[in-house]
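Session log. Operator J.P. requested a structure for one protein chain; no other inputs attached. Running the standard single-chain path with token output.
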Amino acid sequence: MKKHLAEHLVVFIAAFCFLLSAGAANAATSAAKKKHRAPAAARAADEGPCKGYIVMEAASGKVLEEQNSHERRPPASMAKLMTACIVLEKVAAGEVHLTDKVPVSREASKIGGSQVYLKEGESFTLEEMMKAMMIASANDAAYAISELVAGSSKGFVDLMNEKAKALVMNDTEFASVHGLPPSKDQKEDVTSCYDMALLAREVLKYPKILEWTSTKTAEFRNGTFTLNNHNKLLSRMAEVDGLKTGYYRSTGYNVTATAKKGDIRFVAVVMGGPTAKARDNLAVEKLKKYFGEYTVMNVARKGEQVDKAVVLEDGRYRTVKGIAASDLSVTVMRSRKKDLKRVVNVPLSVKGEVRQGQKLGEIIYELDNEVIGKVDIVSPVFVPKANIFTRMVRKAGLNI
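Structure written below.
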């Protein structure tokens, strides 16, 4: 009896130990799985929705919010914004025309990534190629355009870097016309959120850019190929009308977006997003926030007379009141409208004759001691010198 009990006890202990070891193994496997999954989740938590971003008011260039805005990162296809800027500048100068034919070289036909599958020997108008580049992010079109404008892609890259320097894009160095990942012997394009916002402001001087970047789909090659815009913000937010997305694995998801509501335009740049959705969510969140918080105030009207008179020491008239040389609008937070300060800055007197339109001073608008806008004060009329007798009498202290 004791022998049987001992045998049963041994079997029970062995089974119990087996169950314990199996449970431990399952727990270890589960922990290993969690450990395997953890880096991605932890990385997303650590990184947040992006590596950096900036929101800028387009008219003034005022930075409203930023995070790591000067961190240098590859722009990917956002580099094409500079390609477009160079082209539009040359179109405006009459050096090239949108009707010019762009021939496709062998090199252009071999460019990979997003493309419209150009074939060597084909040709399309510059406008067709620009649409392909800005709507569908066609790398082959960008390369062909660069060869037309500068003779070679290398020559065009030189133009891009010259323009970046002129715009004081200090974080930027371009190495390609399209933004593709570099091959082994090539440098990588680098820029920052801040620099891309500067570039956006510059390229927005040319209305044609928004015509292209606000287009969701278009036809190419006589309707046999459809250009689809990579910028899904166009469908998510009615105010968005540009500009350019960019992505490759090592740099993440980027966008330089612009949106206009009424008289206000903002630029939002997001770089290094972990997903396209996270990038777009952040851009939409920031744009909506500032449209809600800011308004445009029309603070000066062209021809409006200022109160302060300027003494004309030598003029036929004794004084003149200047007028605003142009209209002026400023973008301010709705809650700070009453804090806007207006300063009329004119000299007590001027000598000699006064020409019509001659600058006499400025109207300055300040918020928290920061100048947010200014407009020239000019003379509304021509005031010739008074005759010698009148000037002498005035110098003697008589007021005539």
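Operator note: The chain has two domains: 52-295, 301-395.
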